[in-house]
Amino acid sequence: MFKSRSVPVRPSEITDESVWRSRRRLLLQAPGALALAAALPGRAHALAAGEPLNFSRSTRWAVQEEPTRESDITSYNNYYEFGTGKEDPSRYAGALKTEPWTLVVDGLVGKPLKLDMDQILRLAPLEERVYRLRCVEAWSMVVPWVGYSLSELIKRAEPLGDARFVRFETVRDEAAMPGLRSSILDWPYAEGLRLDEAMHPLTLLATGLYGKSLPKQNGAPVRLIVPWKYGFKSAKSLVRITLTDSMPVSSWMQVAPHEYGFYANVNPAVPHPRWSQATERVIGSGFFAAKKPTLPFNGYAEDVAGLYAGMDLKRNY
Ligand code: MTE
Q1: What pLDDT tens digit does each residue of the chain (317 aa) get?
Q2: Does 79 sit in the ligand 1 pocket, CB within 6 Å?
Q3: Ligand 1, residues 73, 74, 77, 78: which to mutate, most atoms within 8 A of Cβ?
Q4: Does any ligand 1 atom lie closer than 6 A to the CB of residue 189?
Q5: Residue 135 C-alpha to ligand 1 middle, in angstroms?
Q6: Which of 33, 68, 92, 197 has the fewest CB atoms found within 10 Å of its own CB?
């Protein structure tokens, strides 16, 4: 495990991906060099997709792999509200209105919250965290997200003693989302976590990637990222976070309970009923590249395996 360290980054530093990559190399080779960079004061207006963000870089969960190209991260997507094709989200998500935005935190909390994007961005310091993303369809990416631990938000709502689970609900915009006309899922897209999973520091409330606010196809303006679980847990464009005392039924559990369980921890030993989960295709590595072995908990076992001590992970898939 790398030691935790973060350095401030100015929005003016955020340019294209080649600069990002060389800066990252510099950062990894000479950590002191960027410590001189000055932080800008926090932002105070609504957020459009693709705007530069103020953030620091965290290496606490650094990965060895190079990040996936920004153009791949933003053009090969799953966002079924815009269609089931990988290019549908980048083609159609522009119609989604993300300003103004309201995120509600309610249910078993002492202090329900109703936040706009400005409040969300100011709630805690934004960090860049480079995480692996492993989709249930057996492909993977490495994404430099920007955000902060979801626990920062949940603790401000003051969870009550009987809260044990968290339900995430995402936006349902009939006018902008052609996919809602299909009955492939029960809309709105909903997901769930146990409260201790939601409070784990790895669980990220993301507002950006590659230093800029989230593109709409990647879940603007604010989404969940749970890097040790299959990508479908990482719900996009969140509008409501509800603490409950019973296990939420996610959209995928509802439509195919024998294929998609509540836990959905990345597990190469448990095949999907229709395909293996032992290996993954790394997006951007080329058509003929060898597949990579999938790691338990997507490589985050050291951080999260303890959450499941004593549980049968084959039954609790
Ligand atoms: N969130 C919503 N609202 N709708 C979706 O269809 N797809 C999920 C998840 N979040 C999805 C969603 C799936 S299957 C994956 S793999 C990831 O988003 C993909 O995130 P990305 O497109 O940013 O890579």
Answers
A1: 333 445 566 555 554 565 556 555 444 443 332 332 333 444 455 678 889 999 999 999 999 999 999 999 999 999 999 999 999 999 999 999 999 999 999 999 999 999 999 999 999 999 999 999 999 999 999 999 999 999 999 999 999 999 999 999 999 999 999 999 999 999 999 999 999 999 999 999 999 999 999 999 999 999 999 999 999 999 999 999 999 999 999 999 999 999 999 999 999 999 999 999 999 999 999 888 999 999 999 999 999 999 999 999 999 99
A2: yes
A3: 78
A4: yes
A5: 9
A6: 33
Choosing from 70, 236, 254 the residue with most ligand 1 atoms within 8 A of its CB, the one to mutate for a pocket test is 236
| Ligand 1 near 135 CB (within 6 A) | yes
Please list, in sequence order, all residues whose beta carbon lies within 8 angstroms of the beta carbon of residue 317, skipping any fewer than 6 positions away.
261, 263, 264, 265, 267, 270
Contact 272, 137 (CB under 8 A): no
Amino acid identity at 203: T
SS3 state of residue 125: coil
Q: Tokens for 230, please give them.
A: 């299959």
244: its two tokens: 């409950």
Q: Is the CB of 242 under 6 A from ligand 1?
A: no
Listed by start position, the domains of the chain span 15-308
Domain 15-308 coded CATH 1.10.443.10: no
Q: Which atom of ligand 1 is nearest to the CA of 137?
A: 16
What's the gap in Å between 191 CA and the centre of ligand 1? Answer: 11
